[in-house]
Structures are given as C-alpha cells and as structure tokens.
C-alpha cells in the first residue's frame, strides 16, 4: 500500500499544491508593509542615484590617483638599478649617488664612522638646502614651498598640455623639490656608540665602527680560556659598530646594517639614495616621492621617506 | 503576472497583494524545507526587500520568481548564520518534526505537505534546496542554477539524487524512477 508509486507522486503533488488558507494568512499586514516600503522608495532611489554617482566619481578619482602613484612608484623603482651599482656595503662609504636627496639638514660631524654621508651633508642645522637634481630636468630652485605634492601639482597645472607636459611633471615628481629636511634622516646618524649596560663589553673599545670587525678583533685579542666566550659574546651583543639610530632613511644607511632588530632585516644592503624604494632600509616600500599628489610616501609605512602632503 | 509586476512597481496595492498571494506559500515552503524555524518572518523580510528594490527590477514573471527566490536564498543563508551564532534560537520542535517524518506513515493525521517538507529537510542542504526550487518553486533547471549559483549539470544531478533519496525514504525507488526522470 505504502510502497506504490502514488506515494511518491503524493509527495511531489503536496509540494506543488496550491496555497492553503493558513499559508496566506497575514496578507493585509504584508501588503501594508510592502506599500509603505515602496512609498519610501522614491527618495531612496534618488539617494541611491546620487550615491552611485559619487561612487563612480570616487572610483575614477581613486583610479587616477592610483595610476599616478603606480607611475611614480614605477619610476622610482627603476632608479635603484642605477643606484645599486653605487651601493657599497663597506663600512667607509663615499656617497656617489646623485644629489637627489640633498634637501637635508645635518648636524655637525658627530656621526659614527659607519654612517658618514660626506657629500650630501651640509654642515649646519635646520637649514633646508635645495639643489637642482641633475638627474631630472626640473629645476629644484623653482620649489618654493616645502610640500612635494603641492609643488608637483602646481607644476602640472602650470605646464601647458602637450608634448613634454608629462615629462616635466614627471621630473618634478622625481625631484627632491618640496621635501622636508625632516624627511631626510641624514641627521639621524649622529649617534655615537653608547655603552650598552646589558653587556660587560665597553663600547668605547669600539674603534672602527664595524661591528663584525670589532667582535672579530675582540675574539682574537681575548686569550682562550675561561671568560673568552663571555667576552666575545658581550662584544657581539654590544651596540659597538652599529647604527643605533632608527633607520628612517636609506640615505644615511651607507653601511650594511648588521642588526636585524635595527632596521627590520639583517640582509639590508645600504642604499645611498633616498629616492630608492623597496627595502633598502628595511622599512617596506617607502619611497621619497609619494605619488605626486601630496600623499605620504606612496606605499610607505610611515617610517620611510614619504613626504607629508600639504 | 507581468502586468501585476508593473503595477506593483507603481505602488498599486492590489498588484502587490496579487504578487504576494501568488508567491507567499512558495516562500514559506522553501523556508520550511530548508529547515527554517521562522519561515513567516523570513518571508516577510523577503517581501520588504522586494518592495524596497522593486524599482530596480525589470523582467517578466519568471524573472520575478528567480529574483524573489534569490532574495529568499540570501535571507535563508543569513538566518542560518544567525542560528549558528546563537544555537539557542534553534527550534527544538524541528527534531520532533523529523521524527514525525520518519514515521510518517504511522501518523496519517500529519498532512501530506508537512510530510513532504519533513522528508526534504532530511536531504543534504544543497539537494534540499535544488529540489525545493525545482519542485516547489517550479523553476527550470537553468533557473535553479542561476539562483543557486551552480552549473546546470550540477543542479540536475542534485535534483535527481534528491528526488531519488526521497523515493528511497518512501521505499518506492524503482517505481518512482519515471517520475524522477521527468523532473
């Protein structure tokens, strides 16, 4: 009886049956709710329309800004190829980079030997010096305000459209114009070795500012036997020869950073141009150019060389 | 139906009521078949969503049904998520209803629809949904596929296996095969 096919058909028929009175109860309330919702829809439509328009504008603007940022980042990314050849990992480095990062304030030569940036530092404090960057056709002396983004923007506006417009704007974007001295951490290197109280090693023994060489010499100078390992360990754990200042800028980072905790990576290779994006100082993709729109540092993480916008 | 949709969009209450009467029971069965403990509440939400978005809808009655069940599906998913977060919301009576279904034949007072929905609820969720949309909402396989975001072939398999399982539950597999193949 229950195994005959009509049982299955009954199930299907039940699922497809017409509505019961119970299922259709509450019609009035439902229709009322729908009607009131529908009545409030026209204003909703308008707001949705305007919201959609705003969204489109926002997306277009974001796209344009993004494209600009990508263009700037792309251009900046290409630069290290040139600069890489000039990077030295030696402890005494002569800065051979283009003076694109010359907008700088420096303190007097109190830097540790490892962080000398001889050619780009300008004696004196708090003085912002603008030097035309020969790498670009843009004359940095045109730069009147310390806002990189605003300056690039004004250059873009003032330059008539047509051939060469993009190049001029690009040059401005790549220039050091408008970059604050605060953004250049060449003065951050003025940290002398300090005795690390956590070790017995006297940092004043540190002569050449090269951590590895110092530790090595300590190891050789200390006679084998009890205390040898401890002495060497202390030397290794000391700050001797390390750039103890936070590395906010690659321009001062003329020597290989030895301490991973100092700059986020133990394999950092010094970069001598603060325009260099990438991981030159271990702080992510900071680049000195922002996106040409006054934004800070393109993809920088806030610790890099990004220039604050207007 | 197409005329109702047009008039409902203009705010005609009669048309709104007609749409509601034509689809409300389908929504309730869909939600009940999916195991919802509060099908009326979910259906109400669906209708509010419909009213709020009706100005954006364009299409015929079939398109309206697809749209309606697409909204219903989303509301069901939302409800399932809420239930997962708050297990206390689960209806303890649902299990009893399943027990009813398993012994449905001994309880002739249980309505055929209730029995059918209880059986559907015992299917895996995807199968149950496919069967409900195909059988209850009377959608074509390609429409079910659109609503579920699956390929037609997958939906066809789900429907077939779901119906077959129903037939197995009823111990009428062989006899039901022709009907299953028609669906």
Short summary:
The complex is a heterodimer of chains A (310) and B (183). Chain A has eight helices and two strands. Chain A is mostly helical and 310 residues long.
Using only C-alpha atoms, the radius of gyration of chain B works out to 17 Å
Helix and strand composition category of chain A: mainly alpha
How do the helices and strands follow one another from N- to C-terminus of chain B?
HHHHHHHHHH
Strand order of the largest sheet of chain A: 1-2
Order of helices and strands of chain A: HHHHHHHHEE
Helix/strand/pairing category of chain B:
mainly alpha
Low-confidence segments of chain B, given as residue ranges, are 92-109
Characterize the main sheet of chain B: none
Oligomer: heterodimer
- Helicity of chain A, as a percent range: 25-40%
Shape of chain B: globular
Globally, the shape of chain A reads flat
How much is the radius of gyration of chain A in Å?
32 Å
Number of strand elements of chain B: 0
The averaged pLDDT of chain A comes out at 53
Q: Strand percentage of chain A, roughly?
A: under 5%
Model regions low in confidence, pLDDT < 50 over at least 5 residues of chain A: 1-5, 43-50, 73-138, 180-201, 243-310
- Biggest beta sheet attributes of chain A: 2 strands, antiparallel
